[in-house]
Amino acid sequence: xxxxxxxxxxxxxxxxxxxxxxxxxxxxxxxxxxxxxxxxxxxxxxxxxxxxxxxxxxxxxxxxxxxxxxxxxxxxxxxxxxxxxxxxxxxxxxxxxxxxxxxxxxxxxxxxxxxxxxxxxxxxxxxxxxxxxxxxxxxxxxxxxxxxxxxxxxxxxxxxxxxxxxxxxxxxxxxxxxxxxxxxxxxxxxxxxxxxxxxxxxxxxxxxxxx
Length: 211
Description:
single chain; alpha+beta; 8-stranded mixed beta sheet; 8 helices; 38% helix
């Protein structure tokens, strides 16, 4: 029996990689991708935009692009074990999206990945990008029961990510639904910021002790 490629396996069993084939699964694959961008060595910023038509855009001019370029290199290899170990988060987005276009800028060169229904090609050419990373992908409506990502749920996911990673700033924009919404998550004190908020809330809401 012929061994299936990792991308074929992802498309056959999407919930095994995202936990859900609802909109929450799309949030999960985005979160895994963002978490694997974080180097913690410097301040990093990521912008996420729910665009019209259901497409999602991830951009950044302050991330570790070297890790992304390495992922692209492993994707080009035929060895499933290397891809699974080093590039699984990106492979899941490729496998579960109708289209993907990812451009990574580094040292005067643009590394471009183009994908259609899990089939991809990678090219490198000289040029300049305004951002270090520009990634547009359209989740596959034939795989997910719904591709409509709930903005409030997305905020809860990346609020947690920002709490646990104080060196990252995440900006979310919703241009898909009727009311344009924006949220920014950056907590330099990390999880301690959350603890301070809970303590303050407790102090203000607790009944005063009786004499």
